[in-house]
Amino acid sequence: xxxxxxxxxxxxxxxxxxxxxxxxxxxxxxxxxxxxxxxxxxxxxxxxxxxxxxxxxxxxxxxxxxxxxxxxxxxxxxxxxxxxxxxxxxxxxxxxxxxxxxxxxxxxxxxxxxxxxxxxxxxxxxxxxxxxxxxxxxxxxxxxxxxxxxxxxxxxxxxxxxxxxxxxxxxxxxxxxxxxxxxxxxxxxxxxxxxxxxxxxxxxxxxxxxxx
Length: 212
Known about the structure:
Layout: H1 2-41, E1 50-53, H2 59-70, E2 74-79, H3 82-95, E3 100-104, H4 110-124, E4 129-132, H5 152-175, E5 179-182, H6 196-199, E6 207-210
Parallel strand pairs: 1-2, 1-4, 2-3, 4-5
Antiparallel strand pairs: 5-6
């Protein structure tokens, strides 16, 4: 009986999935286009607002810092590699940010997440945007790993790093009706081989939400 069910699913599922995507994807992308257009037209002004960005020493976090700086935001930049982070701080100031502070921290540690939020509030007195950008990845076949617990650092940074920081930042964001931004990865839609652990972490998902 199970064999018949499997055979039926193997024959019916691929065409059903194909035609479902064919029907659903065009309106979905059209909807995303219009919402993106509306958000561009009615974009929020971040001039003078305080933005905390984790993982700001390189990559997406670095360039987000420059973009926020060009729009006049005050920045709290967080990273583990302090020498690289210091260069980003200097460039962000040159891009136009009226105030940039540097915080060396590891978001996989709850105490560091509390400290980076506290330092931001103590220094600038408020928080308007939290950008959970910090993330790491790993690349290997699961059966080739000699110590499976080595994957824990990926989840500690990509999942718990966002949870810890959001937990400590939420009361301050709520006071200012602030936003929580979580960065995404293409791996959420197109998982690739040798990165199955990373594919399951929140770095693969995106959200931009406003606290009530």
